[in-house]
Amino acid sequence: MFVKRAGLLDTIQDSGRTGFFKYAVPRSGFMDAQSAKRANTILGNDPNDSVLEMSIQGGIYRFDSPTFVCISGAPMKFTLNGIHGESNCVIPIQPDDEIEFSQASEGVYTYLAVKGGFRSSIRMGSRSMHPSLFGVSRLKEGDVIEYLPIDTAPNKMVGNTSDVSLCSKMVVYPGPEFNCLKTPEQLRDLPLKVAGHNRMGIRVLPSTYLHRRHSTIKSSVVFPGIVQLTPSGELIVLHRDCQVTGGYPRVLLTNEEGLNQIAQIRQGSTIQFELTDLSNYLGE
Amino acid sequence: MGLKVRFHRVSPEVISIELEGTSAAWLSYVAEQLESQFSSIQDVVFLNGVITVFSTELNLILSELASFFDSMDETYESSFRTWYIPIWYNGLDLQFIAKKKGMSIDQIKEIHQKEEYTAIGYGFLPGFFYSSGVPESLDLPRRSSPRTRVPAQSVAFAAAQMAIYPFETSGGWNILGTTPYQFFDPNKNPPVIVKAGDRLRFYEIDESHFKVLQLIWETSSDREKLLSHVC
């Protein structure tokens, strides 16, 4: 696949790498794993196969050999050789076909899966692009991403017709330093504004000050799903590319579904946290 | 003799294990043992006396963790190495450090090379490891405003810790100089050489020596050997 024009933040992602936290290497992987896996499943791929992840604005991509693709995630209009295409279905591709994306009408991350997954380079067990491992943070114009040509249609997927969930509520559980929150009950009805968005974390601004006290903790281990409370009163929902250690109190925690949901909440939009007992999460 | 531990379940897939009064070398050893004994562990991280274990099959491991720690003893075979790291003292902060400490640059270099440092673990960036052992006579806090650009392979310190930046990045540590060696290689498995508990010694090289060693490092098939003695 030839990148004729790159989107705003195009990367190749799979389900990420494990086993390297001890060297401070993040997991990385699909920001909205549910959508990426949906695209793969519709094609009959392994759900963890590598896909193109686009953010807000997609690019123009030319395919040099026959295959099948599927587009899913944040709704983003696209054309195949100038003709409007449909998301969440199998699209046959002929040599020299061109897919052109416009802007996502809502949500943040849109995925393009190709039959069999992309054959881009592997670093430490994963194709997920991370600047420290690949030397670049995104695809650029002129890049070529390999895939295996295929011309037999995948079996039609039945059943999986669920679309991306653009939900403004997210389940959170008490984190290890939950007691750094002044009045946790406040969280229930508190609209939180998404103030910043990248692959490392999503910053949300509460409309009231949540600190019990100015609290710093010894540096401790963090991972995607941990919600930190910064000294200025921001909450940071750590995401797929987050560091492995951090010095802010880990006041809350969300689950895989929560990570997928907040990945799709745009900067400027609001989200609500639904505080739930940790025992519900642990299944005790 | 069992080991005093406290378990804290963070999520269905994450448990943190608090060990009392333990060194980085010991934590590193326990983490290694955990990984080799439980194949369903995906990740182990240790920091400040806490080992954090990640596994999608945590329930299977939980029942056996107590007996694992019962059988551990604080006496263990040490496999830790001493690495000799060349440094070209060309750091952007060298003059600032000397001025702040009321010493000459030569004195700063001498103090830096006299000490032995101990790697205590990875964090911040892929391949970025912290080391302890910065003497008070050298130590300074982080810079009040971080530099937007710290060159790759910078040797720097702050708040009693020494580190080598694996990439060009922003950072607030006081930069002494640069090493020609790269301590993180994502194309190798493992991608690192230094492990927590290892000792580090620095020795001074000049610019031309730097260039030679850089070339030797890039083409070397035995980087551990290069690091095992003064080159």
Quick rundown:
With 284 residues, chain A is mainly beta. Chain A contains 4 helices and 19 strands. Chain B is elongated, with a radius of gyration of 19 Å.
What does this protein structure show overall?
The complex is a heterodimer of chains A (284) and B (231). Chain A has two domains: 2-134, Jelly Rolls, CATH 2.60.120; 169-282, Cyclophilin-like (Cyclophilin). Chain A is elongated, with a radius of gyration of 20 Å. Chain A has helices at residues 33-42, 131-134, 256-263, 278-282, and strands at 2-5, 11-13, 51-55, 60-63, 67-73, 76-80, 83-84, 91-93, 97-104, 109-114, 169-174, 191-197, 201-206, 220-221, 226-229, 235-238, 245-246, 250-254, 270-275. Chain A has 284 residues and is mainly beta. The model of chain A has no long low-confidence stretch (mean pLDDT 92). In chain A, the strands form four sheets. Chain A has a seven-stranded mixed β-barrel. Chain B has 231 residues and is an alpha+beta fold. Chain B has two domains: 5-71, RNA polymerase, RBP11-like subunit (Gyrase A, domain 2, 2-Layer Sandwich), CATH 3.30.1360; 82-227, Cyclophilin-like (Cyclophilin). Helix content of chain B is 28%, strand content 29%. In chain B, strands 5-13-6-7-10-9-12 form a seven-stranded mixed beta sheet. Chain B has a four-stranded antiparallel beta sheet with strand order 1-2-4-3, with helices on one face. Chain B has a two-stranded antiparallel ribbon with strand order 8-11. In chain B, a hairpin with a 2-residue loop joins β3 and β4. Chain B starts with a strand and ends with a helix. Chains A and B meet through α2 and β14 of A and β1, β3 and β4 of B.
Q: How many beta-strand runs of chain A?
A: 19
Number of helices of chain A: 4
Q: Can you tell me the CATH topology of the largest domain in chain A?
A: Jelly Rolls
Q: Which pair of chains has the greatest number of interface residues, and how are they split between the two chains?
A: A-B, 32 and 34 residues
CATH class of the largest domain in chain B: Mainly Beta
Structural class of chain B: alpha+beta
Largest sheet report of chain B: 7 strands, mixed
Distance between the termini of chain A: 48 Å
Strand ordering within the main sheet of chain A: 11-18-15-16-13-12-19
* Computed structural class of chain A: mainly beta
Mean pLDDT value of chain B: 92
What's the arrangement of strands in the largest beta sheet of chain B? Answer: 5-13-6-7-10-9-12
Rounded mean pLDDT score of chain A: 92
- What Rg of chain A is obtained from the alpha carbons, in whole angstroms? 20 Å
CATH topology annotation of the largest domain in chain B: Cyclophilin
> What percentage of amino acids of chain B are in beta strands?
25-35%
* Uncertain residue ranges of chain A: none
Largest pleated sheet of chain A: 7 strands, mixed, barrel
Shape type of chain B: elongated
Please tell me what the overall shape of chain A is.
elongated
Which CATH class of the largest domain in chain A applies here? Answer: Mainly Beta
